[in-house]
Amino acid sequence: MKFITYNALRREHGFSDRLITKLLGEPDAKERNPIRSSGAKMRLYKERRVIEAKDSAAWNDYQEERIKRSERSRRVNKRREKETIEWAKKVKISWTNDPQDTHKSSVADLRHQCTTYDTVLTDLSGRVGRKLAYKIIKKRCLDMIAERYPELAEECKKEATQ
User: Fold this and answer.
1) DSSP label at 149?
2) Using one digit for the tens of pLDDT, what is the confidence trace for 59-90?
3) pLDDT-based confidence at residue 143 (cuts at 50, 70, 90)
4) What DSSP line would sit under 49-118, residue for residue?
5) Within a 10 A sphere around the Cβ of 3, how many other Cβ atoms?
6) Between the N and C ends of the chain, which has fewer C-beta atoms within 10 Å?
7) CA distance 131 to 136
8) How many of the other CB atoms lie within 10 Å of CB of 144?
């Protein structure tokens, strides 16, 4: 008799915790964990039961619903990403102070110490689309620096490509 472990059900067979409980219930056997003897016992399910569960209407319903949820999630994430990018294009980035000597200041120093750049990035945390939004915000800030300090324009162009 062949058994399938709980973890294999999840990794290789596409079961969720909820679906295992719903379609298979309690495991058919529990055995000592061969990797961690002090760990929890492995939950084992008869392969025949797993095959029957995957042939059931409940499994098919779950898979159809999973696909719908996935598509819905993709649409929502796309919308959120678009909103984040629009926000990055419009969010106010301003000067907080002027450096004492621009010749001694690097572009990075100006960006982090003389603008609201870091505060804006904090607001970006956790948003969908933040990687692209970060690049947009950085570019906007570098453009601000190049406009105010033309002698640093070349360095700003270099940093924008990094």
Assistant:
1) -
2) 999 999 999 999 999 999 999 999 999 999 99
3) very high
4) HHHHHHTSHHHHHHHHHHHHHHHHHHHHHHHHHHHHHHHHHHS---B----S-TTT--HHHHHHHSBSHH
5) 17
6) C
7) 9
8) 19
Extract the tokens encoding 131: 């990687």
- DSSP annotation of 15 reads -
State the pLDDT at residue 79: 97
**Residue 34: burial class (beta carbons within 10 Å; 0-12, 13-18, 19+):** exposed
Helix (H, G, I), strand (E, B) or coil at 141: helix
Single-letter residue type at 49 = R
The Cα–Cα gap between 25 and 129 comes to 39
